[in-house]
Amino acid sequence: MTMQMTVDDVQTRESRHILQLYRRAAVTFVRGQGVRLYDADGREYLDLLSGIGVASLGHAHPALARAIADQAETLLHTSNLFYHPLQGQLAERLANLSGLPRAFFCNSGTEAVEACLKFTRRYWYTRGESRSEMIALEESFHGRTFGSLSVTSDEHYRTPFAPLLGGVKFVPVNDPDALLAAVSPSTAAIIAEPIQGEGGVRPLTPAFARAISEACARTGALLIADEVQSGLGRTGYPFYFAALGLKPHLVSVGKALGGGVPVGAALVSEQVADTIAFGDHGSTYGGNLLACRAALTFLSELMEGGVMDSVKRVGQVFDQRLHGLAKKHPALIKEVRGLGVIWGLDLTRDAGPVVPAGIANGVIVNRTAETVVRLLPPLNITEAEANEAINRLDAALAAVGAA
Ligand SMILES: Cc1ncc(COP(=O)(O)O)c(C=O)c1O
Questions:
Q1: How far are the Cα atoms of 90, 193, 254, 285 from residue 298, in angstroms, in the given order?
Q2: What residues are paired with 34 via a beta bridge?
């Protein structure tokens, strides 16, 4: 945005020409630095949301900015009709982190999930078994395209777009008996977020994870772990499925991977990869040089630059301070859930008013699942910044509690 443009200009133009799908908060950001965002009037905010878990290294990260600029001056895009040096390197790094040897690159989380669903269909088709039934979880969110929406439970998102893919059964999250009863020899795959994000930051329990493993072993059903929100260091683990002892056949990633450059990936086991043939799926942009360079820069900061260790340390600060807030605001906060830098404060009422109260107090948070204040800060937020941001959140909660 040019600085001459006023906030009113921005909002008026949008109201005329942008398809009205988002209820935006009344703030226009023009610049960022680390965990801080600045609005058009120069006011500063601590960003505990990082663009819904995307700006994983914060804003204007020097190494990421340099890598993107350098790549733009070198080569941005050639398509998947040709080789380039970076896609294989990125796939190899993701294979080492996930244990899944092959990657398909796309541009978003929903495309990553969509690819996992298509690869599941292809797996059973190649094996000559007509399995297409999917088991998904209540409170799940996997994206907005038709396949992903079909395994997303929220009726609000689904109903206007029916009919969706058939053969999807939803089971209550963290109910091992319900899961074991639902999975059968006709189940093609179970799809689950190891930590449900949009559903209110709800980690799967170890008992439920064991039931998933048992059901897959018993029936041969594939397991798709959707790590778009929980993956790539946000929990202090490369992937939360590993912390739960799960061994997925397919994993979807997105959000944090490009640090703000759109990139997603479906990571697949050799067993699944063996059933897929040339031309089965594809993407014009997927895995181009820009996306791969950004993702490689993020992974090198995460693994060699100390970011993963920092998530573990700062996770303790969030843990202690957010539980402290729950003690301080017992009439407002019912439960605190999360780890690392993914947290939810489940309130006794609609969490909506906390968002503008946060903005008024200089902290950006989000409401999800009606009653949950969700925090997805940049992975490299420092302990001092976390403390400062939680002080501001405390003030916002006090304002909401007093209202
Ligand atoms: C677990 C999960 N899967 C998939 C998606 C869809 O990602 P995208 O919005 O990039 O399509 C999201 C987005 O919030 C998500 O949290």
A1: 11, 22, 12, 19
A2: 59
Of 6-20, 238-252, 342-356, the least confident: 6-20
- Cα–Cα distances (Å) from 25 to 11, 39, 42, 373, 395, in that order, read 11, 12, 17, 15, 19
Ligand 1 and 108: CB distance under 6 A: yes
CA of 305 to the centre of ligand 1 (A): 26
Helix (H) or strand (E) holding 103: strand 102-106
Give Cα 19 to chain centroid, integer Å: 24
Query: 56 and 298 in contact (C-beta within 8 Å)?
Result: yes
* C-alpha radius of gyration, the chain, whole number: 21
pTM of the model: 0.98
Q: Closest Cα to atom 16, ligand 1: which residue?
A: 229
DSSP letter string, 155-214:
HHHHGGG-S--S-EEEE-TT-HHHHHHH--TTEEEEEE-SEETTTTSEEPPHHHHHHHHH
Check pLDDT > 90 for residue 373.
yes
Report how far Cα 293 is from the mean position of its chain's Cα atoms. Answer: 20
Whether the CB of 366 sits within 6 Å of ligand 1: no
Q: Which two structure tokens, joined as six digits, stand for 232? A: 């790539």
Residue 172: which residues within 8 A CB-CB, separation 6 or more?
137, 138, 178
Confidence of residue 1 (pLDDT cuts 50, 70, 90): very low
pLDDT digits (tens, 9 = 90+) for 79-132: 999 999 999 999 999 999 999 999 999 999 999 999 999 999 999 999 999 999
Check if 71 has its Cβ closer than 6 Å to any atom of ligand 1: no
